[in-house]
Write a structure and sequence with these properties.
oxidoreductase, alpha+beta, catechol oxidase activity, 2 domains, Tyrosinase/Hemocyanin, 11 strands, di-copper center containing domain from catechol oxidase, Jelly Rolls, single chain, binds copper (II) ion
């Protein structure tokens, strides 16, 4: 694994050598029993595992022995979402996976192999949203079934359908973590091991969650996602986006020892090539440059929305994250339940704080007070694996959301909702948290005379996987004011 990771679009069409070798290795690993720590299923189960679901999906046989290290959370169900460990955990997961596949490729063909990335937001490539041919081909060049197209996705999918909100906007955020972790690029603070908990960071929310939902099928369910070979190319791109972000001046990475050395209550662990060889434990700092789980990319500019080495000017810098404040300036009064129809909810705002936010959000001169506004959706719960929710602000009662793009705040793919809502899970069903930046929207509404500092109306519009039979609930919706000093 000496080479850098490359853009899959640059490897050549169809069955290029990298993807053919990936298919051959995947096939071989998929034939190994789940108890082998190098098997395809073991690797997938590390992300998410649910014995009954896996039996229903005919991935494992009913009554067949299941290795304890998958059910006791040592290796199994280890993936970190909705927390500041999301990026570091997945980086090590990619590293371990790549090493195991590369070892298999070496054994089968003698070739070196590195995991490629799927650069779906490369605006210079008209084919960027297409899954590489090798992932949709029915057969291998020799006519045998194609292992890269073995597990279910959206029926007939050839490309992900660009939806509103699917963007690199997360890359504009300057801070990995702000305040107590409710806001920022990288996810909310958690000291201990939790699989799905707390607040998702901006990069996790979009494009990460969005792509999981757009590919659909196993990719749309955290308990199955790691089994789809495209999962790894998707996460490789997310990892590259993080690396590009960290290398861009003006971005502040977290340096909290709790993150660097975490989690506090147990170690993360990854398998190594060679079945049932002892695994390697690690902390977040092992995934940073110089660490044992660090890998490099051929390019950090194309399709990343930033230019490493060049100071980012996309968004005004609000000063050191530790000096910024995040303060709720209003919340709705009751739990909101969303079924098959849009639901509106009312938020009373502290008028002085809201007016002050509006007055300072456009500040650009160094030393001046500056604010941003966010909607915070707390403890979202439901049983579907990746429901879609559109959010609008100040949509008049009865108005058709589809005809009101000027009130659109954002879309959320609630990836992992099923896992985060399991009351028998290790997180006791605390649900998921999300924030949506409404700074620009609030400014536009104010310019149009439609922003009242006394209150805000939020409308939640159900997309796929949200029905009267399978509703979702949002415990609380609040408005957060983030304040800082332009620097
Ligand atoms: Cu993922």
């Amino acid at each position: 694994m000496s080479t850098s990771r490359q853009d899959v679009a640059k490897l050549g069409p169809g069955w290029n050598k990298v993807l053919l070798n990936y298919a051959l290795a995947m096939q071989a690993l998929d034939e190994q029993p789940i108890a082998d720590r190098n098997s395809w299923k073991f690797l997938g189960a590390m992300h998410g595992f649910h014995p009954q679901l896996w039996i229903n999906e005919r991935l494992i046989k009913s009554g067949a022995p299941i290795p304890a290290d998958l059910t006791n959370h040592t290796y199994g169900n280890q993936c970190q979402h909705g927390s500041w460990y999301f990026l570091s955990w997945h980086r090590a997961y990619l590293f371990a996976f790549e090493a195991i596949v590369a070892a298999k490729v070496k054994e089968l063909t003698g070739d070196d192999w590195a995991l490629p990335y799927w650069n779906y937001l490369d605006s210079s490539n008209p084919q960027a949203l297409y899954l590489p041919d090798a992932f949709v081909a029915k057969t291998l060049p020799d006519g045998k079934p194609n292992p890269l197209n073995k597990y279910p996705r959206r029926p007939g999918i050839k490309a992900i359908k660009p939806v509103r909100g699917f963007s690199l906007e997360a890359m504009d955020e300057n801070d990995f973590i702000v305040g107590n972790g409710t806001l920022g690029f990288g996810g909310g603070i958690t000291g201990n091991f939790v699989q799905f908990d707390g607040v998702a960071g901006e990069l996790e929310t979009n494009p990460h969650n969005t792509v999981h939902g757009l590919v659909g099928g196993y990719m749309g369910n955290a308990l199955l996602a790691g089994l789809d070979p495209i999962f790894w190319l998707h996460h490789c791109n997310i990892d590259r986006l993080w690396e590009a972000w960290m290398n861009t001046p003006g971005k502040t990475m977290v340096r909290d020892p709790l993150w660097l050395n975490g989690p506090a209550d147990r170690s993360f662990i990854m398998p190594v090539p060679g079945d049932n060889a002892p695994g390697v434990t690690f902390t977040s700092k092992d995934t940073l440059k110089g660490g044992k789980f660090y890998r490099t990319y051929d390019d950090l500019i194309i399709g990343t929305g930033v230019t490493p080495g060049v100071h980012a000017v996309a968004r005004v810098n609000m000063g050191s994250p530790s000096k910024q404040t995040v303060q709720p300036i209003g919340a709705n009064a009751a739990v909101v339940k969303i079924g098959g129809a849009p639901v509106g909810t009312h938020i009373d705002l502290e008028p002085t704080a809201a007016a002050n936010s509006m007055a300072t959000m456009g500040a650009t001169s160094p030393g001046k007070e500056v604010a941003r506004l966010y909607l915070s959706l707390e403890s979202v719960r439901g049983s579907a694996p990746s429901p879609l929710l559109d959010v609008y602000v100040n949509l008049p009662e009865g108005a058709d959301p589809a005809l009101s793009p000027d009130r659109y705040a954002g879309s959320l793919t609630l990836f992992g909702l099923n896992v985060a809502s399991q009351t028998d899970g290790p997180h006791a069903g605390s649900g998921l948290g999300y924030t949506i930046d409404i700074t620009d929207l609030a400014q536009r509404l104010a310019d149009a005379g439609d922003f009242d500092p006394n209150h805000l109306r939020v409308t939640l519009v159900p997309g796929e996987q949200i029905t009267d039979e399978e509703p979702i609930t949002v415990e609380r919706i609040s408005v957060l004011k983030r304040s800082g000093i332009v620097s």
